[in-house]
Amino acid sequence: MAKSPVPTTKVDNAGQVHLLVVEDDDAIAVPLVEGLERAGFTATRAATGAEALANRARADLVLLDLGLPDMDGTELCRRVRADSDVPIIIVSARGDETERVLGLELGADDYIVKPFGTRELIARVRAVVRRTTPAPEGERPQRLGSLEIDRRTRRVSVGGAEVALAPKEFDLLALLAEDAGAVVGRQQIMDEVWDPHWYGPTKTLDVHIASLRKKLASPGLIETVHSVGFRIRVEP
């Protein structure tokens, strides 16, 4: 099977990501679309494979149920991926390993098994969007005092000296810096930097925070908000 190009997500001029929700069950689709829109996305619902094919050109990301009335979702995934690199997240009750592997081999970017929580789904969508949205060529690095974060090149420097960060350390720092000064909850960090299904020790977050503080040579830059999460300190 030919390898598909790395998918990229295109964000519209308003900064919103438009989702195509392919789901035939009204009881699932209606609250799902409402939840996604509350989270800041825009969404179009398609109840059949034919509707999905007709609307896929408008989508920045496709949420695809496999149990459709007019065609199997795996066939729809194959047809979309044949002529488009739009990111696809399969959302299905088919949870065995064979189905998950097949979906990913067909070109899906993620696979979520029903039932699922809206918070988990939104975290997965955001993770795929971050992974597939290319930074604009002209985007300037973010500066926070002597700290500089270049998301396009994934480089960090302090006082002009580059700091070598592990991939998760960079993702963690970039997430905290998105809204510098605001508190980011521990669970949100785990969902977005690691995975909603992370079963390892939660202390891994504290280890990464400690490592960042040491590497950035600024113990007070990342503040702990007891029992809530972390934030980047913003100088007045």
Descriptive account of the structure:
The chain has 236 residues and is of the alpha/beta class. It has 2 domains: 18-132, Response regulator (Rossmann fold, 3-Layer(aba) Sandwich); 142-232, Winged helix-like DNA-binding domain superfamily/Winged helix DNA-binding domain (Arc Repressor Mutant, subunit A), CATH 1.10.10. The protein has 8 helices and 12 strands. It has helices at residues 26-38, 49-55, 73-83, 97-105, 118-132, 167-178, 186-194, 203-215, and strands spanning 18-22, 42-46, 61-64, 88-92, 110-113, 142-144, 147-150, 155-158, 161-163, 184-185, 222-225, 229-232. α4 links the parallel β4 and β5 (110-113). The termini are far apart. 28% of the residues are buried. Mean pLDDT is 85; it is low at 1-14.
